[in-house]
């Protein structure tokens, strides 16, 4: 799957520089000279980032394939795309998690993942609970031990009270040991 890194805006100057409407949360990592982007526009093909700079007015870039203002202007609205598959093994994009079934470790349905919120200490998984409420679960391995994107589920193991749903409790009659005086 391809992710939108930036949308090309209008030209700036006469040497082919363009304004970028950045759409990634990691522009410093994604927008580095030498990076080759796939574009969404037929006929444009690939664009190689030659220079990039950021100042108080925004992000600006020049591409190796673009040498003047006219060519830069023709790129307005073009999306720069990156492959999402080149990440870390235990890293996911929010769009990959949305829609996953949230289940407790015993399989009890807890709800559906509706988003990921950036927190000060760590990201938070936003879950629309079975009862309709919304809960934020810290996205740490202790509380989210399994993320199975292909299987369409996320196992959440929250502390008591974080989610409205509780794990299924064993039936007292089936699992109870006989007590003295009980009739067989």
Explain this structure to me?
There is one protein chain. With 184 residues, this protein is mainly beta. It folds into two domains: 82 residues, Elongation Factor Tu (Ef-tu), domain 3 (Beta Barrel), CATH 2.40.30.60; 62 residues, SH3 type barrels (Roll), CATH 2.30.30. Helices cover 10% and strands 39% of the residues. The strands form two sheets. Strands 1-2-5-4-3-6 form a six-stranded antiparallel β-barrel. Strands 10-9-8-7-12-11 form a six-stranded mixed β-sheet. A hairpin with a 4-residue loop joins strand 9 and strand 10. It is elongated, with a radius of gyration of 25 Å. The mean pLDDT is 84.
Number of domains: 2
Structural class based on helices, strands and sheet pairing: mainly beta
What series of H and E elements makes up the topology? EEHEEEHEHEEEEEEH
Strand order of the main beta sheet, please?
A: 1-2-5-4-3-6
CATH superfamily of the largest domain: RimM
Q: Identify low-pLDDT runs.
A: none
Q: Kindly estimate the percentage of residues that lie in beta strands according to DSSP.
A: 35-45%
In brief:
The protein is mainly β and 184 residues long. The protein is built from four helices and twelve strands.
Task: Write the topology of this structure.
Elements: E1 2-12, E2 17-22, H1 27-30, E3 36-39, E4 46-55, E5 58-63, H2 69-74, E6 79-83, H3 94-97, E7 101-103, E8 109-117, E9 124-129, E10 134-138, E11 146-148, E12 153-155, H4 172-175
Parallel strand pairs: 7-12
Antiparallel strand pairs: 1-2, 1-6, 2-5, 3-4, 3-6, 4-5, 7-8, 8-9, 9-10, 11-12
